């Protein structure tokens, strides 16, 4: 990854497309539980997602990640697809229970060997490996001991980070500690729509803090265990929260949700403290005594860049009654993932939607990037996830055409380009996702991949969006839109 700061993007090229800065990193991304399968092979033990998905009624159609796309056995084929597409980087996650089955003790070499083989193959093909330590697959043994609401889990995570760094630090030069800790804390322990499926707002707030602490301790472990020049980051699914109206009440709804969606993480990670208003908003639930002296200093470790995941904006208003959170787009549950936001209503923004029911709105990404630039000046950014689910299918000739996804990606890449022109230091973009896969509580019913997977056979078919994205990456230029606009 280039370390040179950038403030403006080049002018349009001769074709009318928009060129990205030299060295801009084009990649794609996946997560271990969503693609690997091999759930009980070579010593791997259950994660919270194994347990959750095997619990009747938790995942659509009773789907599990037991086989997923069988990437554990087909990884060489998947790397070949990436090489054919010409992407420069691959963001994958390491399965914690595959390399440290109980979340304690020595590493399991068979598990580490899988990631050694994967990264060696990536490097041989000229693809930069970008490793995420935690994409939601906590070893079930650690959940049985209390999970992320318990402080001890933060220290176990740091130990795991040290094991991964020792094994892979000579190959992997870019690391991410956590992926979307908001989902881990508030969907996993608040609304219960994600593993481990608990519904306790205090536990969710405790989990948020201990994820933050685990992040800070893991950054230190990675810095100690990898060569100089290794880049360390965290990935946050920052919510771009907008008010339904210009009223003061709706503005306060934005403030409340922004606090528990974004600033509860960016505060201690990037600015040295938890936001005072969010502590006040949640004071009826907890006194935050689980935050100990010195914790925010441990959390606020310097980062080489911030990973930003974005799919859709969040539209809110004040609500007269509690419980309006149910329409927030994060799954049906009578329990709120928004501590301190009980009297906030969520609304579907206008316009087209994806198969997830999420609004297609690239302006939210543009506005979000400018906000991060202003809040944390000087910190480089990477778009570590962006993409869309559509109802894809293979045609009679075996082709998969997905013009809706191409339109989605074009709009959002245009937003990234405009943000760079406005002075935002964005270094790269990772398409979510390389493959159709296990989409958490939705099972296999939603397809985010640039590559279609026929689940009964495992056959991979690059969609038209994959070929389109390959051209963008190869040329480092966003072509004019199909309607002739740039």
TrEMBL record:
<comment type="similarity">
    <text>Belongs to the glycosyl hydrolase 1 family.</text>
</comment>
<keyword id="KW-0136">Cellulose degradation</keyword>
<keyword id="KW-0326">Glycosidase</keyword>
<feature type="binding site">
    <location>
        <position position="179"/>
    </location>
    <ligand>
        <name>substrate</name>
    </ligand>
</feature>
<feature type="binding site">
    <location>
        <position position="311"/>
    </location>
    <ligand>
        <name>substrate</name>
    </ligand>
</feature>
<dbReference type="InterPro" id="IPR033132">
    <property type="entry name" value="GH_1_N_CS"/>
</dbReference>
<feature type="binding site">
    <location>
        <begin position="439"/>
        <end position="440"/>
    </location>
    <ligand>
        <name>substrate</name>
    </ligand>
</feature>
<dbReference type="GO" id="GO:0030245">
    <property type="term" value="P:cellulose catabolic process"/>
</dbReference>
<dbReference type="InterPro" id="IPR017853">
    <property type="entry name" value="GH"/>
</dbReference>
<keyword id="KW-0378">Hydrolase</keyword>
<dbReference type="InterPro" id="IPR017736">
    <property type="entry name" value="Glyco_hydro_1_beta-glucosidase"/>
</dbReference>
<dbReference type="GO" id="GO:0005829">
    <property type="term" value="C:cytosol"/>
</dbReference>
<feature type="binding site">
    <location>
        <position position="135"/>
    </location>
    <ligand>
        <name>substrate</name>
    </ligand>
</feature>
<feature type="region of interest" description="Disordered">
    <location>
        <begin position="1"/>
        <end position="20"/>
    </location>
</feature>
<keyword id="KW-0119">Carbohydrate metabolism</keyword>
<keyword id="KW-0624">Polysaccharide degradation</keyword>
<feature type="active site" description="Proton donor">
    <location>
        <position position="180"/>
    </location>
</feature>
<feature type="binding site">
    <location>
        <position position="34"/>
    </location>
    <ligand>
        <name>substrate</name>
    </ligand>
</feature>
<feature type="active site" description="Nucleophile">
    <location>
        <position position="385"/>
    </location>
</feature>
<protein>
    <recommendedName>
        <fullName>Beta-glucosidase</fullName>
        <ecNumber>3.2.1.21</ecNumber>
    </recommendedName>
</protein>
<dbReference type="GO" id="GO:0008422">
    <property type="term" value="F:beta-glucosidase activity"/>
</dbReference>
<feature type="binding site">
    <location>
        <position position="432"/>
    </location>
    <ligand>
        <name>substrate</name>
    </ligand>
</feature>
<dbReference type="Pfam" id="PF00232">
    <property type="entry name" value="Glyco_hydro_1"/>
</dbReference>
<dbReference type="InterPro" id="IPR001360">
    <property type="entry name" value="Glyco_hydro_1"/>
</dbReference>
């Amino acid at each position: 990854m280039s370390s040179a700061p950038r403030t403006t993007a080049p002018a349009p090229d001769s074709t009318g497309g928009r060129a990205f800065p030299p060295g801009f990193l084009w990649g794609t991304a996946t997560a271990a539980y969503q693609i690997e399968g091999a759930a009980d092979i070579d010593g791997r033990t259950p994660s919270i997602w194994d347990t959750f998905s095997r619990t009747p009624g938790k995942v659509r159609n009773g789907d599990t990640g037991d086989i997923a796309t069988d990437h554990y056995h087909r990884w060489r084929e998947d790397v070949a697809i990436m090489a054919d597409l010409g992407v420069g980087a691959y963001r994958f996650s390491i399965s914690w229970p595959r390399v440290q089955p109980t979340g304690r003790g020595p590493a399991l070499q068979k598990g580490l060997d899988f990631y050694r083989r994967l990264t060696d193959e990536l490097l041989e093909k000229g693809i930069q490996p970008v490793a995420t330590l935690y994409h939601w697959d906590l070893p079930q043994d650690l959940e049985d001991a209390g999970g992320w609401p318990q402080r001890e889990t933060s220290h176990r995570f740091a130990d795991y980070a040290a094991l991964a760094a020792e094994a892979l630090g000579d190959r992997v030069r870019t690391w991410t500690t956590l992926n979307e800790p908001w989902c881990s804390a508030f969907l996993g322990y608040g609304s219960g729509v994600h593993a481990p499926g608990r519904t306790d707002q205090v536990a969710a707030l405790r989990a948020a803090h201990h994820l933050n602490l685990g992040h800070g301790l893991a950054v230190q472990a990675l810095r100690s265990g990898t060569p100089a020049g290794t880049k360390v980051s965290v990935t946050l699914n920052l919510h771009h929260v907008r008010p339904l109206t210009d009223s003061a009440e709706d503005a306060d709804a934005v403030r409340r949700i922004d606090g528990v969606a974004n600033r509860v993480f960016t505060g201690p990670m990037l600015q040295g403290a938890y936001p005072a208003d969010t502590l006040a908003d949640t004071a009826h639930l907890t006194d935050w005594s689980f935050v100990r002296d010195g914790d925010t200093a441990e959390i606020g470790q310097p980062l080489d860049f911030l990973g930003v995941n974005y799919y859709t904006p969040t539209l809110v208003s004040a609500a007269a009654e509690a419980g309006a959170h149910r329409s927030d787009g994060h799954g049906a549950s009578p329990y709120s993932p928004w501590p301190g936001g009980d009297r906030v209503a969520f609304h579907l923004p206008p316009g087209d939607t994806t198969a997830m029911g999420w609004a297609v709105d690239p302006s939210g990404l543009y506005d979000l990037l400018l906000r991060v630039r202003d809040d944390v000046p000087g910190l480089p950014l990477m778009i570590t996830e962006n993409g869309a689910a559509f109802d894809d299918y293979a045609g009679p000739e075996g082709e998969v055409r997905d013009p809706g996804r191409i339109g989605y990606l074009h709009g959002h890449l245009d937003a990234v380009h405009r943000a760079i022109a406005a002075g935002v230091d964005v270094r790269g973009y990772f398409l979510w996702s390389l493959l159709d896969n296990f989409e958490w509580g939705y099972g296999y019913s939603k397809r985010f991949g640039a590559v279609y997977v026929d689940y009964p056979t495992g056959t991979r078919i690059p969609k038209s969006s994959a070929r389109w994205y390959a051209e963008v990456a190869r040329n480092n230029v966003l072509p004019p839109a199909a309607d002739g606009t740039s």
